[in-house]
Amino acid sequence: MKIDRTAIGIEAEKLKSPFGFKGNYADGLWQTIVGLESGGERSLGIAVQSVLWSDASVFAEYGQDRGNELMHRLTSYALEKLKGTDFDDPLKANEWLFNKCYDKVAEITGRKDIRKTFVLNSLVPVDMAFWLLWAKSKGISKYDEMTAGFDRYLPLKHERIAAIPLITYGVSQDEIKTLLDGGSFFLKVKIGKEPLWDKERVLEIWNLAKDYSTAYSKSGKPVIYLDANGMYKDRGQLEGLLDFLESKDILRHVGVSKNHLMN
Questions:
Q1: Is pTM beyond 0.90 here?
Q2: Which of 109, 187, 231, 259 has the fewest CB atoms within 10 Å distance of its CB?
Q3: Which of 115 and 154 is assigned the larger pLDDT?
């Protein structure tokens, strides 16, 4: 599938309120739109740029606006490299682009430690557009057909799913209570701001949640999922948090992901 033409556009979106996580705050996002064309067929891919999520060190060094510009530049570079190429496998195309783009961002920034997620985030709209264009070229119109060759990676079809509201740094007690009143029982709480602040924040949220009941947990109480996004620097910080939660009888109601809590 030869890529004949490409296009890219962005729309900057101001958030309703600052989105706090990874020890920082973002108050706006860029929506990226990518177009691809091959043999007269066209497709669109869309994605949200999230510099703070993909690499907090880039956000800290460049700031929100320059970080978004850097990610947008990388997406544009990927389209430049893709134009004129001929791939018949979306996964191989993405892998090829990833290597090109990682080398490019290292060249631009002078850094060799950029997180892979930064490059992958920049490639999301390109990847989406490529898959949709590839599906058109194969006469495929349904998701199950498009992913038939990868069904071993997608073995389950769930009958029900649960909403997992995201509790960032700035979400108020009233907003959390509204979620609980509405039946939310699994709260994803962003921590990683500062160890003492984290302890107080989890205690504050649990004091709101502890009087609610649910049929969807073993304890009959809501569950708190802690997400520090790699902001805990060592095992001691993590153990200090867990000891505090145990002392407050909160730990048994917490789902902890070690991969997110520690580097």
A1: no
A2: 259
A3: 115
